[in-house]
Amino acid sequence: MKMVPLIELAAVIRSKNAGPYELTIDILFKHEQDYLFLKEMRFFTKELFAQLYGIQTDQIINLVYFDPAAAVKCTMVRPVVSGSPGDTDIYGAQQHTPLLGLKIPWRKDDLTGDPDLQRVAGAR
Amino acid sequence: MKKTPFKVLAPTAILGYGFPEESFAKGLAQKPDLIAVDAGSTDPGPYYLGAGKSFTSRSAVKRDLEFMLAGALELSVPCIIGTAGGAGAREHVQWTESIIAEIAVERNYKFRMAVINADVSKAEVLQAMRENRICPLYPAPEITAEDVEKSVRIVAQMGVEPVIEALKKGAQVILCGRCYDPISFAAPAIREGYDPGPALHMGKILECAAIAATPGSGSDCVFGALYNDCFELESLNWRRQFTCISTAAHTLYEKTDPYKLPGPGGTLDLQDTRFEALENGRVRVSGTRFLPAVPYTVKLEGVKLTGFRTISIAGIGDPILISQLDSVLDTVSAQVKESLTGAGTLLFHTYGGPESPAAKSFGATRSQQVGLVMEVIAHDQNTANTICSYVRSTLLHFGYPGRISTAGNLALLYSPSDIQCGPVYEFSIYHLMAVDDPKSLFPIRVSEVNA
């Protein structure tokens, strides 16, 4: 079993407000096959995001696998409403970092793209 | 008889974000039927709606409008601006209107303009509450009469109906208060009989202009061509293009659910949307449906005044202090609370510093300096200033255990060390309001500019 860092498979990992009360995370994959494999194994779950962000699962509004963009999207309740006292990221644009260290258990044969050759984050 | 395709030039993601002249010229050469822009967002936070100010600069907005007005007048097509001034309240609309009037005088332009306001009075919202016509947009909390009474400004997001009405009145330039982002791009086509599904989805992408292309940019022009059952997107700069992925990915952007995009009067359904690559970096999008909702609802946005803020910014480099910073800040907080009971809210924000306990030992390097923002919010500016000053001086000279740097604990960034930030607002209303008539909340004023 190989542990593959998510940042090797993803072209985009980003966060942003979805209105002032919600934070939404998008993960766009470099290769559709990798996305489909993770979708098939249901690797991304509300529970996983709740754990990564240190929140209760009921604070996750939805988790969507979006085939047209080979993307996973997770939207959660903002712990502090945008701009309210205590908020430190008005646009919610720097809340993707808990995902950057994520590693995915993966049998080597399943890898469809060579992650070492595909480090072109954001180039899609 | 409607014209096919209906062509739209989208110069920039937000009015005032700018665009290259050559991209705009290339767009004009393709003879668009409409030049439209979105000027607003709630992303910059509650301040701008509360204070009635724009988050873009006046000169940058004027520069963009000069090109847009010149182009629209040259081609005799409408120029539509959505969510004037960033938040779309009366003050924001007036601000943008004064810029348009200034350009018209300077360049001797004459045109018919419609100004559509989107302010909603507290009385209207309270009335709607009594009639059970208000519901919160989860996760916003239920609305109370107190929330409404405390609100400084309330706006509603208009749909296509008021803009279509302004077009019927013969307006060439339409300046809208708060409106749903795709509206300024979609309203003229919907008026001509186009299916609202593709029209609104195209608007949803064009309102962000080149952000949906790759490489993305918030400051470049794109072109949309709307057909009966689909639309096509084209970058006006050879350096970028639309791809199926960049276009599909954009439907994720800032949205809760990429398959369902709710707006005034209904929802865009992307369940059967198809993205198809065309030659020359273009993309065709088809299959998006608009599902009308009954009753017709508009989104309300309101903010309330929370207090007044003063901050002070400093660096801390002493590793002995850094190693016990949390407890020092807690102690200072307690000391401040004891001296100035109930007068305000104190928040410390620390940036950087050593992450592991090992790195907190002696010998922390310069890169392990901690940035500290001391923030105070109080009911008036003077109180906020007083508390912040007290916090700063207390922390500056605080005698923590093991201290050897006895002359001062803070590398204060500025003189003056304390910065008055003025009023602080919070979002208080983020709710749906059901209306009988989609136009009733949005008064239209038509005038002959420079006549």
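qc> The first helix of chain A runs from residue 6 to 9.
qc> done
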